[in-house]
Amino acid sequence: MSAGAPRASWSRAARTLVKRALEGVVRGWTPRVDLPLSTWRLTRDADGALELGGRRLDGLFAQWGSPLYVVDEMRLRENAARFTARPEGAAHGCEVFASYKTNPVPGVLRTLHECGLGAEVTSAWELWLARRLGVAPERIIFNGPARTDEALAEGIASNVGLINLNTRSELVRADRVARQLGRRARVGLRVVPPGGAGGQFGERIDTGAALEAFREALQQPHLDVLGVHAHYNGRIDSAPQLSQFVGALLTFVDELQARLGLRVQILDVGGNLACPTVHTLSRRDLRLAQTFAREPTPPPVDEVLSIDGYVEGLVRPVEAHFAALGQPPPRLFVEPGRALMGNTQMLLCRVASVRDVDEAGVRWAILDAGINVAEPMTSEFHQLFALVEPRGPGRQLYRLTGPTCTQADCLYPAWRLPKLRPGDGLAIMDAGAYFVPSSTCFSHARPGVVALGDGAPRPLLRPETFEDLVSRDEPGAVLRALHAVGGGP
Amino acid sequence: MSAGAPRASWSRAARTLVKRALEGVVRGWTPRVDLPLSTWRLTRDADGALELGGRRLDGLFAQWGSPLYVVDEMRLRENAARFTARPEGAAHGCEVFASYKTNPVPGVLRTLHECGLGAEVTSAWELWLARRLGVAPERIIFNGPARTDEALAEGIASNVGLINLNTRSELVRADRVARQLGRRARVGLRVVPPGGAGGQFGERIDTGAALEAFREALQQPHLDVLGVHAHYNGRIDSAPQLSQFVGALLTFVDELQARLGLRVQILDVGGNLACPTVHTLSRRDLRLAQTFAREPTPPPVDEVLSIDGYVEGLVRPVEAHFAALGQPPPRLFVEPGRALMGNTQMLLCRVASVRDVDEAGVRWAILDAGINVAEPMTSEFHQLFALVEPRGPGRQLYRLTGPTCTQADCLYPAWRLPKLRPGDGLAIMDAGAYFVPSSTCFSHARPGVVALGDGAPRPLLRPETFEDLVSRDEPGAVLRALHAVGGGP
Q1: CATH of residue B453
Q2: CA–CA separation, B43 vs B34, rounded Å?
Q3: Least confident span in A223-237, B57-71, B356-370
Q4: Which domain holds residue B446?
Q5: Model pTM?
Q6: ipTM value
Q7: For A384-410, how does the pLDDT look when each residue is reduced to its tens digit (9 = 90+)?
Q8: How far is B46 from chain A (nearest CA, A)?
Q9: Are strands A185-192 and B395-401 parallel, antiparallel or unpaired?
Q10: Is the alpha carbon torsion for A411, A416, A418, A419 positive or negative?
Q11: A1 to chain B, closest Cα gap in Å
């Protein structure tokens, strides 16, 4: 392995030369333009301090620690209202089920249920949580690729509104479980629209597997076959994408009626609508940022399909299609996650350490938040703001890394900011989708979640303590018990 | 976006044709050869059931659930003994500090401390844990890139054996904190050997920054500058790599003496030794597995540097170097993680659902364990065994995916196994490095950890419960309190 070293060092030298020659050019390509503060209802006070609803965000650290997730309750309710709104003149809107897996913070989910949303759950634990939060069974959709017989039994016995079966092989199991319970299960079947790749999810329409699965489902005596369930393969960010997806599903619904005599009662189109201020960074973008410290570009927010546009783009074609057939339309279910919650939460964090400028002219700031609490940022654009923006010039290009002992823990390979010092605060936008469920306890306890609304900040999840992190330690439990009776350390 | 659809479907058709033509060839390249069971002290009983130390592994599910991490205590103690062994004829061996971040299971760490290992911690929480587990302060190394002043103060006040400072900027902070405490801090400085890229870690030797940092450190009145700290840039799996690394550090240690008059008392060479049965899968390997269902190839286990060879390769050159100078050698610290714990733990899991063969002839099995509990497997080879291997032929190529609702949740794109049914058990080897700390609560509670040793299975961490998952829910805490006094649901 060391035999290749001299050659490797030559090629490294060559790479360095090329890199130096290119980096001035590359960095100049597109200077970063921040999305406006008003996108998130943020403002700055006279001291340059970031505020939400007139409350300084850096003031939250004293009570709740850092890092900290902060929920914008007003935006959360507003997004929920947009999803549930009936388009003007339409007979019905969508029935909306919050995707639990996207942001399983009970306090957030309670607010969404208050707004009239049901629950879309994908595991036995999420089903348990929905029932714990008091969601009526008929307002629960139970999805998921890995349900055991016990989990299916739980769903059937709870009489949930819809169990979407993932594959043909699950049909037979669900029928058997329902029979054992002496019940009938209300089911849909997940299908993959033509052109999509379903992976482990659903049966393909284009191979005929989906039709066969429905044929088989209709033969099972303990299944009520109510629905067609599908997800778009990727993020939906334009009206034509949505239109093509809905069109393919309506064609299949017609085929079910023509070939099997099945009138679909529920059309469940899943989630996948984009959060307009987040986009996936290409490998090229990531390489340019890492190698040349080129700052990323925000998505074209105004061009992304809005929640209103999405609801319109679903309800209108479905109503028109069935009006033309002279039939009542099926109920239209949606399961939003990203678009519902993504932009309603931010992650506040602080600078722990700043190091000297390296050879490439990049200064490093090491934060108390990293991929342990912001995993989606390894591949997504998220707007960043300093919690206090000083007046005057003097900005510097930073590489912002996290607190875990791995070089992979990098949140922003390149982002220009005012001069940072240890203790300075930052706000990472759009932390409401997949930040909380993908968080780990890697070397650090997990943050709290606080909601900002009309009144005082409202804690939703308290920050994790060191004691929490050993609460499952079995010998520890014994030691603590000893301690409680006066023995032990 | 839909305008490109006809063209996209042509190119998709072309890709499919090429793929079909190639896949027979590609799959034939190298049939998978399993590493022998004895590599992990495993055996099979007369029924084909997998055993560790004579105990059937599938019997553990009944009490501890699935998935489940299982620790091989004998192997753990054996690895620890190899790291602490003094090479024959050498005056000293290494002083060994277990990397807490690699597998922060208190029961595992207790065993390692019983074997005489100290603690290498990288955060305030890990420092707290080491003290909670009763580790003597002088047996603790405190590392990490993101220490606040409070964390540094905690380390200094606890009088830990060594605080390795990460950057020049941290020197001044550490000195100030020590002064405020009226103490002197025992410090090392992290350096980056020539040719390596340190990222956010350490000061580079080749630019002179490391020497300057030591010069500055020696001027701080409240720092005792004891050590040089470095990590190899990447995994060490051969003797020449180690030799080159140690040589570069010894050259720098000489330079510190010649230029600054500093006699280094501690040489801390970090971790990075490979686990011999795990290797990183290249992007090419991953693509071949995903596209053509080609099975991965195990690493050349016998060629990988062993723990014994590693200790030899450290101790001998360091002793020889200082013997030639007529000086006593510095203390030699190592911080193993991967090589110490990787192959001492496995992940048991079960098949939740099996689906039909798809067009490519691949059958899908959906497991109750996925990237939520086995994140390192997105880029690493890990041997897999069926918990019960039936006699006779009839193997099938499977794609093994996890329980979370994302296509990315794939553990094995291709692996040939006996015919699987829901409920069947599997054992994923080498789950002792980074599986536990990178685990999440994504839609599923986290598994328990059980140790197998001489006697009965010993629980180290109990499985997480649904109640655990809402224990930080603030309104929930209120509800539970109401419930306890007889109100609530």
Answers
A1: 2.40.37.10
A2: 14
A3: B356-370
A4: 22-68+343-469
A5: 0.93
A6: 0.92
A7: 999 999 877 778 899 999 999 998 999
A8: 29
A9: unpaired
A10: positive
A11: 7
